[in-house]
């Protein structure tokens, strides 16, 4: 009888292992087909499939997962989320920090020597409903519902890839992910309460690039008179000194005001920065010194909202000046849908969802969550490209100063430059930006990087992200 019980136990374990392999393998992308269609030579594994984002399983979030090619189970897992709200995280995978990325302004892939898969297992989730290939019940969505969907999808991921659950887990992303990431962290903190050790999500840190945070940044009330954007333009001499002084004089009374002299000043900023609409001057708010790409596929529309975040009420699916040629070339292809195991329920891919108009933005932003996150010993890195005018460094420094004063955060290491090694032996180390370390939170700027830091500065991004996950501070 004892032998029979042992036999049944072994059989049960084998069946469980077999089920796990089948689940994983079902989403494994054919490497030969991937290399043929993408015209690359990638030897690592790629998974593409769907995660259950609600209890009923009617909401399904598309994901792509790139295990680190070397020693995957000795490296952390990083979830990457793009923002919008409503823009696809595949932009991060294929334009920013994935193992193969598009050459600028083309539909041609190249290998990314600074891929974050060099030091981590990279997970990308398209969130919320109707974003990218993700689908589910139509209706009102919000910052709160997105956080619920994201925690469900994450739990589903770790139930399938159980061997990765014990590893250190980090969440990173940019732009409106400055809302998605802290709200998801809040859900994880609550999820972990009372769970046994082997069931915890091992969240260690958040790394947020040019992220919406404070109510004065990306909320409906902040939109009419974007004081942090205007201060950014003034400091960079993109508007006249006369206009800048007028803005500073009325900044408090104009917050949230949509008409009168406040609207006149806001309109004047747009004219001085990028000309009249009739002039058709191309200006890239995501990188004020960068190139403005204008490729727009048939059936798509590029936003003309140059003063700040993409409006949910616009019909456009492409943010202003975004480099989307490669993304649309491949992700609208029937062959690529088959390769990535995309279901019929998924709509045709676009970089930003046009059906997110009922999305409810929390007027509190995500600032209110930082005290709880820091109290739970979750480290935070705020990295900011210093030539982004959409969620500019001026706003980030404003609320970090406010947070430090409110929470009495100790300054561990003051504001200072950080460096990358020179490209040539004869050169000294090169200034890569500036960094300041508080108790639990680091602010790091990246020189000459825009809104999408890992796109503009890949080497610098690999350096600072590796240091962050190791818990190391810059000298």
TrEMBL record:
Pfam family, one: Peptidase_S10
GO terms for MF: serine-type carboxypeptidase activity
Keywords of the record: Carboxypeptidase, Hydrolase, Protease, Signal
Keyword check for Transcription regulation: no
Enzyme class: hydrolase
E.C. no: 3.4.16.-
Residues annotated as signal peptide: 1-16
One BP annotation, GO: proteolysis
Coiled coil start-end: none
Family: Belongs to the peptidase S10 family.
Protein name as catalogued: Carboxypeptidase
Species for this entry: Paramecium pentaurelia
